[in-house]
Design goal:
Number of helices: 14
Shape: flat
Distance between the termini: 81 Å
Length: 339
Protein backbone atom coordinates (compact mmCIF):
# COMPACT_ATOMS: atom_id res chain seq x y z
CA UNK A 1 0.00 0.00 0.00
CA UNK A 2 2.73 2.38 1.01
CA UNK A 3 4.98 1.39 -1.84
CA UNK A 4 2.21 1.94 -4.41
CA UNK A 5 1.42 5.34 -2.89
CA UNK A 6 5.05 6.33 -3.11
CA UNK A 7 5.16 5.11 -6.71
CA UNK A 8 2.05 7.11 -7.56
CA UNK A 9 3.51 10.15 -5.85
CA UNK A 10 6.79 9.76 -7.80
CA UNK A 11 4.91 9.43 -11.08
CA UNK A 12 2.87 12.53 -10.24
CA UNK A 13 6.05 14.46 -9.44
CA UNK A 14 7.59 13.39 -12.74
CA UNK A 15 4.45 14.47 -14.57
CA UNK A 16 4.46 17.83 -12.75
CA UNK A 17 8.13 18.35 -13.63
CA UNK A 18 7.39 17.47 -17.25
CA UNK A 19 4.47 19.92 -17.27
CA UNK A 20 6.63 22.61 -15.60
CA UNK A 21 9.48 22.11 -18.10
CA UNK A 22 7.23 22.07 -21.11
CA UNK A 23 7.04 25.87 -21.57
CA UNK A 24 10.86 26.16 -21.45
CA UNK A 25 11.23 23.56 -24.17
CA UNK A 26 8.53 25.29 -26.18
CA UNK A 27 10.23 28.67 -25.82
CA UNK A 28 13.52 27.16 -27.01
CA UNK A 29 11.96 25.68 -30.09
CA UNK A 30 9.53 28.43 -31.02
CA UNK A 31 10.45 31.94 -32.20
CA UNK A 32 10.23 34.76 -29.66
CA UNK A 33 7.83 37.68 -29.69
CA UNK A 34 7.29 39.40 -33.03
CA UNK A 35 9.09 36.62 -34.90
CA UNK A 36 12.43 37.08 -33.14
CA UNK A 37 14.45 34.07 -32.19
CA UNK A 38 14.53 33.46 -28.43
CA UNK A 39 17.60 32.78 -26.29
CA UNK A 40 17.03 29.07 -26.58
CA UNK A 41 17.50 29.25 -30.35
CA UNK A 42 20.83 31.01 -29.79
CA UNK A 43 21.93 28.23 -27.41
CA UNK A 44 21.05 25.65 -30.06
CA UNK A 45 23.69 27.13 -32.45
CA UNK A 46 26.87 25.04 -32.32
CA UNK A 47 29.75 26.54 -30.41
CA UNK A 48 32.08 26.49 -33.42
CA UNK A 49 29.62 28.65 -35.39
CA UNK A 50 29.33 31.19 -32.56
CA UNK A 51 33.12 31.41 -32.27
CA UNK A 52 33.42 31.86 -36.06
CA UNK A 53 31.03 34.82 -36.30
CA UNK A 54 33.46 37.59 -35.19
CA UNK A 55 36.00 36.48 -37.78
CA UNK A 56 33.36 36.47 -40.54
CA UNK A 57 32.32 40.00 -39.61
CA UNK A 58 35.92 41.19 -39.92
CA UNK A 59 36.36 39.75 -43.44
CA UNK A 60 34.84 42.75 -45.35
CA UNK A 61 37.05 45.17 -43.43
CA UNK A 62 40.11 43.03 -44.19
CA UNK A 63 39.24 42.89 -47.90
CA UNK A 64 38.74 46.66 -48.00
CA UNK A 65 42.01 47.27 -46.18
CA UNK A 66 43.83 44.91 -48.54
CA UNK A 67 42.31 46.63 -51.56
CA UNK A 68 43.68 49.94 -50.29
CA UNK A 69 47.08 48.81 -49.09
CA UNK A 70 48.03 46.56 -52.01
CA UNK A 71 48.12 49.27 -54.75
CA UNK A 72 49.76 51.67 -52.30
CA UNK A 73 52.43 49.14 -51.38
CA UNK A 74 52.98 48.27 -55.05
CA UNK A 75 53.44 51.94 -55.92
CA UNK A 76 55.84 52.38 -53.02
CA UNK A 77 57.77 49.32 -54.22
CA UNK A 78 58.16 50.74 -57.75
CA UNK A 79 59.69 53.94 -56.41
CA UNK A 80 62.95 52.13 -55.56
CA UNK A 81 63.41 51.17 -59.24
CA UNK A 82 64.25 53.18 -62.32
CA UNK A 83 61.13 52.10 -64.17
CA UNK A 84 60.30 54.07 -67.35
CA UNK A 85 58.98 53.49 -70.86
CA UNK A 86 62.48 53.99 -72.27
CA UNK A 87 63.86 51.39 -69.86
CA UNK A 88 61.76 48.22 -69.85
CA UNK A 89 64.28 46.41 -67.60
CA UNK A 90 64.31 48.58 -64.48
CA UNK A 91 67.31 48.76 -62.19
CA UNK A 92 67.15 48.86 -58.43
CA UNK A 93 68.14 52.41 -57.47
CA UNK A 94 67.01 52.54 -53.84
CA UNK A 95 66.13 56.08 -52.71
CA UNK A 96 67.70 57.76 -55.75
CA UNK A 97 64.30 58.96 -57.05
CA UNK A 98 63.59 60.75 -53.77
CA UNK A 99 67.07 62.31 -53.78
CA UNK A 100 66.43 63.63 -57.30
CA UNK A 101 63.09 65.07 -56.22
CA UNK A 102 64.39 66.97 -53.20
CA UNK A 103 67.42 68.31 -55.11
CA UNK A 104 65.30 69.43 -58.08
CA UNK A 105 64.28 73.10 -58.07
CA UNK A 106 61.10 72.29 -60.00
CA UNK A 107 59.86 70.25 -57.04
CA UNK A 108 60.21 73.19 -54.67
CA UNK A 109 58.52 75.48 -57.21
CA UNK A 110 55.60 73.06 -57.44
CA UNK A 111 55.47 72.68 -53.64
CA UNK A 112 55.31 76.47 -53.25
CA UNK A 113 52.51 76.75 -55.81
CA UNK A 114 50.65 73.91 -54.08
CA UNK A 115 50.87 75.61 -50.68
CA UNK A 116 49.76 78.97 -52.13
CA UNK A 117 46.83 77.33 -53.84
CA UNK A 118 45.74 75.26 -50.83
CA UNK A 119 46.06 78.05 -48.26
CA UNK A 120 44.46 80.66 -50.53
CA UNK A 121 41.51 78.45 -51.46
CA UNK A 122 40.92 77.22 -47.89
CA UNK A 123 41.04 80.72 -46.38
CA UNK A 124 38.77 82.36 -48.95
CA UNK A 125 36.29 79.49 -48.89
CA UNK A 126 36.15 79.54 -45.09
CA UNK A 127 35.54 83.29 -44.87
CA UNK A 128 32.94 83.31 -47.64
CA UNK A 129 31.31 80.08 -46.42
CA UNK A 130 30.84 81.41 -42.87
CA UNK A 131 29.53 84.74 -44.23
CA UNK A 132 27.01 82.98 -46.46
CA UNK A 133 25.94 80.73 -43.58
CA UNK A 134 25.35 83.76 -41.34
CA UNK A 135 23.18 85.34 -44.04
CA UNK A 136 21.20 82.17 -44.64
CA UNK A 137 20.75 81.57 -40.92
CA UNK A 138 18.17 84.34 -40.90
CA UNK A 139 14.93 82.71 -41.96
CA UNK A 140 13.91 85.07 -44.74
CA UNK A 141 12.43 84.34 -48.14
CA UNK A 142 15.68 85.30 -49.88
CA UNK A 143 17.64 83.11 -47.50
CA UNK A 144 15.43 80.10 -48.16
CA UNK A 145 15.73 80.60 -51.94
CA UNK A 146 19.51 81.03 -51.79
CA UNK A 147 19.76 77.92 -49.63
CA UNK A 148 18.32 75.88 -52.52
CA UNK A 149 20.58 77.56 -55.11
CA UNK A 150 23.67 77.16 -52.95
CA UNK A 151 24.03 73.48 -53.65
CA UNK A 152 24.13 73.85 -57.45
CA UNK A 153 27.96 74.22 -57.82
CA UNK A 154 28.43 71.03 -55.79
CA UNK A 155 26.34 69.15 -58.36
CA UNK A 156 28.78 70.00 -61.17
CA UNK A 157 31.98 68.02 -61.69
CA UNK A 158 35.01 70.25 -60.92
CA UNK A 159 36.52 69.62 -64.36
CA UNK A 160 33.27 70.73 -66.03
CA UNK A 161 33.16 73.85 -63.84
CA UNK A 162 36.77 74.63 -64.85
CA UNK A 163 35.93 74.29 -68.56
CA UNK A 164 32.88 76.56 -68.14
CA UNK A 165 35.00 79.19 -66.42
CA UNK A 166 37.75 78.80 -69.03
CA UNK A 167 35.23 79.86 -71.69
CA UNK A 168 33.89 82.67 -69.52
CA UNK A 169 37.41 84.01 -68.88
CA UNK A 170 38.45 84.13 -72.52
CA UNK A 171 39.98 87.60 -73.08
CA UNK A 172 38.20 88.35 -76.38
CA UNK A 173 34.91 86.44 -76.32
CA UNK A 174 34.48 85.62 -72.62
CA UNK A 175 31.44 86.98 -70.80
CA UNK A 176 33.51 88.23 -67.84
CA UNK A 177 35.51 90.71 -69.93
CA UNK A 178 32.31 91.63 -71.76
CA UNK A 179 30.71 92.62 -68.45
CA UNK A 180 33.83 94.53 -67.35
CA UNK A 181 34.24 96.41 -70.64
CA UNK A 182 31.98 99.36 -69.60
CA UNK A 183 34.33 99.89 -66.64
CA UNK A 184 37.44 99.94 -68.84
CA UNK A 185 38.56 96.45 -67.75
CA UNK A 186 37.57 94.50 -70.82
CA UNK A 187 41.08 93.37 -71.79
CA UNK A 188 42.14 91.38 -68.72
CA UNK A 189 44.29 88.32 -69.56
CA UNK A 190 42.88 86.10 -66.85
CA UNK A 191 44.87 82.91 -67.45
CA UNK A 192 47.71 84.17 -69.64
CA UNK A 193 49.89 85.53 -66.81
CA UNK A 194 51.36 83.49 -63.91
CA UNK A 195 49.59 85.48 -61.19
CA UNK A 196 46.33 85.67 -63.15
CA UNK A 197 46.34 81.92 -63.84
CA UNK A 198 46.88 81.05 -60.16
CA UNK A 199 44.24 83.50 -58.95
CA UNK A 200 41.77 82.31 -61.60
CA UNK A 201 42.32 78.70 -60.51
CA UNK A 202 41.71 79.63 -56.88
CA UNK A 203 38.58 81.56 -57.90
CA UNK A 204 37.12 78.53 -59.68
CA UNK A 205 37.90 76.36 -56.64
CA UNK A 206 36.16 78.94 -54.44
CA UNK A 207 33.13 78.98 -56.73
CA UNK A 208 32.81 75.20 -56.61
CA UNK A 209 33.50 74.49 -52.94
CA UNK A 210 32.37 77.54 -50.94
CA UNK A 211 28.83 76.07 -50.76
CA UNK A 212 30.29 73.00 -49.06
CA UNK A 213 31.77 75.16 -46.29
CA UNK A 214 28.58 77.21 -46.07
CA UNK A 215 26.39 74.13 -45.65
CA UNK A 216 28.57 72.76 -42.84
CA UNK A 217 28.69 76.15 -41.12
CA UNK A 218 24.93 76.56 -41.49
CA UNK A 219 24.35 73.15 -39.90
CA UNK A 220 26.61 74.20 -37.04
CA UNK A 221 24.78 77.51 -36.56
CA UNK A 222 21.43 75.76 -36.34
CA UNK A 223 22.74 73.38 -33.68
CA UNK A 224 24.03 76.10 -31.32
CA UNK A 225 22.10 76.64 -28.08
CA UNK A 226 19.86 79.72 -28.07
CA UNK A 227 20.19 80.67 -24.38
CA UNK A 228 23.65 82.39 -24.61
CA UNK A 229 22.46 84.54 -27.52
CA UNK A 230 19.24 85.45 -25.69
CA UNK A 231 21.26 86.46 -22.62
CA UNK A 232 23.59 88.57 -24.80
CA UNK A 233 20.59 90.28 -26.40
CA UNK A 234 19.10 91.06 -22.97
CA UNK A 235 22.45 92.56 -21.89
CA UNK A 236 22.49 94.74 -25.01
CA UNK A 237 25.61 93.16 -26.58
CA UNK A 238 26.45 94.33 -30.09
CA UNK A 239 26.37 92.03 -33.11
CA UNK A 240 30.15 92.14 -33.45
CA UNK A 241 30.67 91.31 -29.75
CA UNK A 242 28.22 88.40 -29.98
CA UNK A 243 29.91 87.15 -33.13
CA UNK A 244 33.43 87.26 -31.64
CA UNK A 245 32.64 85.99 -28.16
CA UNK A 246 29.79 83.55 -28.76
CA UNK A 247 29.16 82.59 -32.37
CA UNK A 248 32.66 81.88 -33.64
CA UNK A 249 34.00 80.10 -30.51
CA UNK A 250 31.04 77.72 -30.53
CA UNK A 251 30.96 77.42 -34.33
CA UNK A 252 34.70 76.89 -34.74
CA UNK A 253 34.69 73.03 -34.37
CA UNK A 254 32.20 72.81 -37.27
CA UNK A 255 34.16 75.27 -39.39
CA UNK A 256 37.41 73.48 -38.65
CA UNK A 257 36.01 70.23 -40.05
CA UNK A 258 35.29 72.04 -43.31
CA UNK A 259 38.77 73.62 -43.27
CA UNK A 260 40.40 70.20 -42.85
CA UNK A 261 38.47 68.71 -45.76
CA UNK A 262 39.07 71.67 -48.04
CA UNK A 263 42.76 72.06 -47.19
CA UNK A 264 43.49 68.39 -47.84
CA UNK A 265 41.48 68.43 -51.08
CA UNK A 266 43.26 71.58 -52.23
CA UNK A 267 46.64 69.99 -51.62
CA UNK A 268 45.59 67.18 -53.98
CA UNK A 269 43.96 69.36 -56.64
CA UNK A 270 44.42 68.33 -60.25
CA UNK A 271 41.24 68.59 -62.29
CA UNK A 272 40.45 72.30 -61.85
CA UNK A 273 43.97 73.56 -62.60
CA UNK A 274 44.66 71.16 -65.47
CA UNK A 275 41.33 71.89 -67.18
CA UNK A 276 41.73 75.65 -66.73
CA UNK A 277 45.45 76.27 -67.38
CA UNK A 278 47.12 72.88 -68.00
CA UNK A 279 49.78 74.04 -65.52
CA UNK A 280 50.66 77.17 -67.50
CA UNK A 281 51.72 79.65 -68.50
CA UNK A 282 55.09 77.95 -68.24
CA UNK A 283 55.16 76.07 -64.94
CA UNK A 284 53.38 78.79 -62.98
CA UNK A 285 50.43 76.60 -61.91
CA UNK A 286 52.10 73.19 -61.89
CA UNK A 287 51.16 71.84 -58.47
CA UNK A 288 52.56 68.56 -57.16
CA UNK A 289 49.68 66.50 -58.57
CA UNK A 290 50.22 67.90 -62.07
CA UNK A 291 54.00 67.44 -61.74
CA UNK A 292 53.45 63.79 -60.87
CA UNK A 293 51.08 63.39 -63.82
CA UNK A 294 53.55 64.98 -66.22
CA UNK A 295 56.42 62.78 -65.02
CA UNK A 296 54.46 59.51 -64.91
CA UNK A 297 52.10 59.87 -67.90
CA UNK A 298 53.44 62.46 -70.35
CA UNK A 299 57.18 61.79 -69.89
CA UNK A 300 56.56 58.11 -68.96
CA UNK A 301 59.04 58.10 -66.09
CA UNK A 302 56.83 55.92 -63.96
CA UNK A 303 59.01 55.46 -60.89
CA UNK A 304 59.86 59.14 -60.73
CA UNK A 305 56.19 60.14 -61.02
CA UNK A 306 55.22 57.62 -58.33
CA UNK A 307 57.89 59.09 -56.06
CA UNK A 308 56.21 62.47 -56.45
CA UNK A 309 52.89 60.90 -55.44
CA UNK A 310 54.42 59.28 -52.36
CA UNK A 311 55.94 62.59 -51.29
CA UNK A 312 52.58 64.32 -51.79
CA UNK A 313 50.84 61.59 -49.79
CA UNK A 314 53.28 62.12 -46.92
CA UNK A 315 52.66 65.88 -46.98
CA UNK A 316 48.86 65.45 -46.95
CA UNK A 317 49.07 62.80 -44.24
CA UNK A 318 51.18 64.97 -41.94
CA UNK A 319 48.95 68.02 -42.54
CA UNK A 320 45.84 65.95 -41.81
CA UNK A 321 47.37 64.57 -38.60
CA UNK A 322 48.20 68.07 -37.33
CA UNK A 323 44.76 69.47 -38.20
CA UNK A 324 42.84 66.50 -36.78
CA UNK A 325 44.83 66.67 -33.55
CA UNK A 326 44.06 70.39 -33.32
CA UNK A 327 40.39 69.65 -33.96
CA UNK A 328 40.42 67.10 -31.13
CA UNK A 329 41.83 69.67 -28.71
CA UNK A 330 39.18 72.19 -29.78
CA UNK A 331 36.39 69.67 -29.24
CA UNK A 332 37.74 68.62 -25.85
CA UNK A 333 37.97 72.26 -24.80
CA UNK A 334 34.38 72.84 -25.94
CA UNK A 335 33.23 69.76 -24.01
CA UNK A 336 34.81 71.11 -20.80
CA UNK A 337 32.82 74.36 -21.01
CA UNK A 338 29.94 74.17 -18.50
CA UNK A 339 26.56 74.34 -20.15
Amino acid sequence: MDSSTEADHGAASADDAAVAGAPEKASAAEPGPRGRRGPGAERSVPAWRRSLRPYLLVVPALLLTGGILYPFGLGLYYTVFDFAASKPQPDLVGLENYRRIFTDSSFWDSAWVTVLYAVGAAVVETVLGVAVALLLHRSTLVGRVLEKVLILPLMIAPVIAAIIWKLMLQPSVGVVNHLLRPFGLGGVQWTDTPTGALLSSIAVDVWVYTPFVAILALAGLRSLPASPFEAAAVDGASWWFTFRKLTMPMLWPYVLVAVIFRFMDSLKVFDIIYALTEGGPGDSTVVLQIRAYLEAIRFQRYSFGLSYMIVLWAVVYLAAMVLVRYLGRIQNRAAEVPK
